[in-house]
Amino acid sequence: MPKQHAHLLLFLKGSENEVYRPDATIGNAMSLDESDNAFQTLTPEIRAIMGVFALYWKLDDSIEKMNDDPKLTKMECRMIIWLERPSRMGLLAQMMLAVPSTVTATADSLEAQGYVQRSRDPQDRRAWLLELTESGWKRRHEMEHLASEMFRDSSGLNDEETLIFSELAGKVYDNVLRTGVPEGLKTCN
Description:
By secondary structure, the protein is mainly α. It has helices spanning 6-12, 32-41, 44-66, 74-82, 89-96, 100-112, 134-155, 159-180, 183-186, and strands at 87-88, 116-121, 124-132.
């Protein structure tokens, strides 16, 4: 069984207090072969959910390990990635699936660190846009490079599989924005 299925054992046989260790025998833990077979007997939907959870946990751990110079919060990292172009704060909140107050606090912190700046929206002088500074763009490019490496290492997908996965993930993301986010986030302007 590949290491990314470690959390499946927790889901199938463990408890929240147990930790799966692939090289140790703890109680009645499944062998790698048993767990791989158990994974294959699950429905495609459950396998997809478990795969997404495992990938999320692996990437979350990897992001924590790479983010140390200077230390940015996860929300700050997400905002830097989302700021591909100047954006209004409300739209940014929707894209990041976050409440507007969190986005404002994150923007304040990134602005103090010199990664973002606010400017008036030329199409609506009452509104403000948030955009990356030169150092923000530099940090974003570093993060993109590291994220690509982390994704490939964590997922085990090749270039073609990554493209297919990204298209499917984009479809899921769009559906969640359209139908699954909390009501308060759907109305952010």
